[in-house]
Design goal:
Blueprint: E1 9-15, H1 25-41, E2 45-51, E3 55-61, H2 68-85, E4 105-109, H3 114-122, H4 124-129, H5 135-138
Antiparallel strand pairs: 1-3, 1-4, 2-3
Helix pairs in contact: 1-2
């Protein structure tokens, strides 16, 4: 097959270990930058990134060669390993260690929903401050679990 048409969009959500509220400032910037780089390396298009202190939202245009499980594993392991290696080994570094909880949420998004989902993902901290959340986009657990 010489050409493939693909219009797949995936919204991913995962949490810091023990829901630690550490995603801000330098760490938040680092996670955003590394996720963008990893997505590019995996031939995925990052459409939106947002965090709300203890969890991350990522909206991607998917390709036909990656599995969700493998990409999320890369995002989580690369960001935590690289960040933690940058910390001072003598416990004097004021920056927190980064660890992610097991699991994640993955939701497919229709093309027509993209503007609304992009706005939601990019404004995570505001939505959480105002408690204007979309339960469909905030979960990493299946319904009734």
């Amino acid at each position: 097959m010489s050409r493939v048409f693909n219009q797949m969009y995936v919204h991913l959500v995962w949490q810091t270990k023990r829901r630690q509220r550490i995603l801000e400032g330098e760490l938040d910037t680092f996670v955003r930058r590394r996720i963008q780089e990893i997505a590019l390396d995996q031939r995925l298009t990052l459409l939106a990134f947002g965090s709300a202190w203890d969890h991350v939202h990522v909206l991607l245009k998917w390709n036909t060669t990656c599995t969700v499980k493998d990409v999320v594993q890369r995002f989580k392991s690369f960001t935590s390993t690289e960040w933690n290696k940058s910390l001072s080994p003598d416990d004097t570094d004021p920056r927190p260690e980064l660890a992610w909880q097991n699991g994640y949420g993955a939701i497919t998004i229709r093309h027509g929903e993209l503007p609304r989902v992009i706005a939601y993902v990019e404004n995570q901290k505001l939505h959480h401050r105002q408690k204007r959340l979309s339960p469909d986009f905030e979960t990493t657990q299946p319904p009734n679990s």
